[in-house]
Amino acid sequence: MADRREMWKALGMDVDTHDGLCAALPVAFGDVYLSQKNRPEGMAFWDFVVSDIHGIRPAELLEAQKEGRKVFGTFCVFVPDEVVVAASGIVTGLCGGSQFWVPDGEKVLPKSICPLVKASVGARLGRTCPFFRIADMYVGETTCDGKKKAYEILGEDVPMYIMDLPQMKRECDLLKWKDEIAAFARKVEEFTGNAITPEKLDEAIRLINNKRKALARIFEARKDPDNIPISGADALLVTQIAFFDDPARCAEMCNKLADELEERNRQGVSVFEKGTKRIMITGTPMAIPNWKLHHIVETSGAAVVCEEMCTGTRYFENLVEEGLPTLDQQYMALSRRYMKNNCACFTPNPGRVEDILRLAKEYRVDGVIDVNLKFCCLYDTEGYSVERALKEAGIPVLGIETDYDDGDSEQLRTRIGAFVEMLG
Amino acid sequence: MGAPAIIDYYILFHNHTEGMALYQYLRAHGANARICPVPRTASDCCGMSLLVLAEDIAAVRRCAEESGISFLDIVGLPRDIDPRRDRYC
Prior knowledge:
The complex is a heterodimer. Chain A is of the alpha/beta class. Chain A is built from 19 helices and 8 strands. In chain A, helix 11 (198-221) packs parallel to helix 13 (247-267), helix 14 (292-298) crosses helix 19 and helix 17 packs across helix 18. Chain B has a 4-stranded antiparallel beta sheet, covered by helices on one side. The N and C termini of chain B lie far apart (33 Å). The A-B interface holds A 1-5, 21-35, 41, 44, 47-48, 50-52, 54-56, 98-100, 289-292, 295-296, 299, 404, 406, 409-410, 413 and B 12-16, 19-20, 23, 27, 34-40, 43, 45-49, 51, 72, 80-89.
């Protein structure tokens, strides 16, 4: 095999420690993905990417940097990729979905912060994530208190730029977010040395919209009430990798997969037996390689058919208006699209409950699992409204708090198994 | 005595380009193979491999010869896929 160690060493990574992750990935991948039957052929692309997740894409990013392009690492779906792309920059997701990185995060953060934040900081400070080594700039946002404080610690080690996301959705907040996007655009122009023109931004808007449309097609295929053409674990993997991949290639591969899923629906080719209970998962994001909950659900007699989360519908729903002639109008269009995202950081946030009720109908779900990463007080607190609304609508709901550790797996199996059984 | 362990065969490559090329060739010619990370017990290096069953080995060798795509090794390992293990990375 191509030995990536030289590349990782050149990036200043702690290769020996990182080796522990390399050893764990094949086992987890085998248990979650190779154990599945009748997967779509198109998933081969994502199997390929995840098999060398710290090799193939990092090598591409390094090549792009040699050509003078800048790489921007982001933590959240609120950072507008379009702005970076318009300046010939590249956006990449960052590591943060594994317990492997948590202990290094806990060296500088309290234990009582969510595992996603601890893992992100740990991946950077422990030097065990190539994406965290490659990015020229890190773009944060003010979506949670844990991240805001973590950025201050990360900022001592890496160049950080923070976008101040409003926490309400009044017209003045949309204008404020538009100004934030414009300020970010100026920073990106300065950092890359490339001017953002209306033509370039429109091209970038269309590119990212195409990626969203392609992801939406995959999710659309999951709505078929009589067939489940793809497992939730596979759909989650597609979304997780979308944060890292080249957006044009992502759209191309997602469209190919959507073609296959639509054909599967026509032919009645399902991953699960007829009558398998359909579950929607709502809540906090699941960064790669966090496959725990999906896998437990799907080996407990049910199938995940939708994710109302940042690694799900919140990533691709709503498009940015195309064809606007001025940057000012385009920044406002970006603001309007991104502010439609019903993250729990907003108050009040009735749109999220409306989304969940709408999605439950669209995906014909039998039940909802509202999952929160431990110590995410925003989603945990909003769980009260979410679960109340679902109960009022007569949709069975199970609230779960978990983290990346394997320790609660048996307990989760018991609770989820009982929930699925209760669905009848 | 328990039943003998099923052996899974992992095809290792010099690089992912050859791995993907052979995968595509195999699938185009009706042979079974699945892409997966190289198990640590098969190699110290990270990266992709192809997982095939014993009955597919002959087709793999034939396709590799026909296509001129080289591979590094074929490693047989007792099957170690357990969806109830609950060990995530």
